[in-house]
Amino acid sequence: MTPDFARSPFIVIWETTRACALRCPLGEDPGCAWQPRGAAGVPAIAGGSDAAPAVTSDRVTEALRAVLDPELGMSVVELGLIYGIEVHGGTVSIAMTLTAPGCPIHDAMTEWVRQAVLKIPGVGEVEVALTFDPPWTPERISFAPGSRR
């Protein structure tokens, strides 16, 4: 049986949005013509009950768990490299350190942190500040899953 789309416009919108969401997760396909865009090019969410959760320091911390130190194979969170997270609307400020001041990947690491946080819906800007005060020590490493520093 063919649905009567004139009497059921919601079904058409939902089905095309759902199909696009399956094809374009998190809006990674800018050519997706069906996916509506909101402020700052972030995909708009159809329906009133599916609003994106607010940006919080906990959500930022979870996103940062995906950023791994390539030499140690641990996340910047597990290593205790994140000294502070501040969220002001869509702007996130992160204070972090590295295992050593002369770390050869300091530019890459800060960019990985920035990119990981930019993937969070609602985040429009990420500021990453490196500090070496206090200096990082191995005592900052946390092996407990989900632990917070």
State the fourth-level CATH superfamily of the largest domain. Fe-S cluster assembly (FSCA)
**Poorly predicted parts:** 3-39
Largest sheet: 3 strands, mixed
3D shape: globular
- The first-level CATH class of the largest domain is given as Alpha Beta
Strand order of the largest sheet: 1-2-3
> Treating each run of at least 4 consecutive H or I residues as one helix, how many helices?
3
The chain-level mean pLDDT equals 76
**Approximately what portion of the residues adopt beta-strand conformation?**
5-15%
Number of domains: 2
Known CATH architecture of the largest domain = 2-Layer Sandwich
Helical amount:
10-25%
Class per helix and strand makeup: alpha+beta
The strand count comes to 3
N→C terminal distance: 57 Å
